[in-house]
Amino acid sequence: MEQITVNNFTIDVVRKNIKNIHLAVYPPTGRIRIAAPIQTHEETIRLFVVSKLGWIKRNQRKLEDQERIPKREYKQRESHYFQGRRYLLNIIDKEGSPEVVVKSKKYIDLYIRPNIPVEKRHEIITEWYRTELKNKIPDIIKKWEKILNVEVDSWQVKQMKTKWGACNIEQKRIWINLELAKKPEHCLEYIIVHEMIHFFERHHNERFVYYMDSYLPNWKQLKIELNKLPVSHADWNY
Length: 238
Prior knowledge:
By secondary structure, this protein is of the alpha/beta class. Helices cover 36% and strands 26% of the residues.
């Protein structure tokens, strides 16, 4: 990837078939990315970055204050998030098949055999997250297919390290980050709508913003909320 350095800031530069330069600072690490028209001279990009240094610093400071979740050990009373709520893990010895159950607003009950290793506990919880997220997605897609008058031909949940969502416009396919199982449902809905809007407009340009403003007027607030929520020890951004 093309990169430039300005005032000790390293900036990723992506050249696209667009009219204007777009700047973004991504959570959780404050990574800086410029999308620029294909023929834009490097000096023009540098001058643009210099003009935005104050904005970059302010947004990176905000991200530094964001709560970080340490790597999970899947032990008793450890904090875990599910659909935007914080729960305590309650480990219960049980022979036979493992099970994950949310019975209250406080605990996630994990039924497992004694002495199950951390890696297996992670696998069990991860698959539970995947199942719960997959149960939520179809109704949201169906709702927005009617609103947008567009069809999603296929969708998939996957672990992604760079985005909350992605799409293939030609194949009308979307991917949803597994981490969204931990976030509020309205944040999941925002990401699904975001990807479906890309079926109309590939780039994050004025036309894309127009569609988002028209169909989901509070999308900017949802984006801010999602990016302020606690993030895992891995790097997730959008």
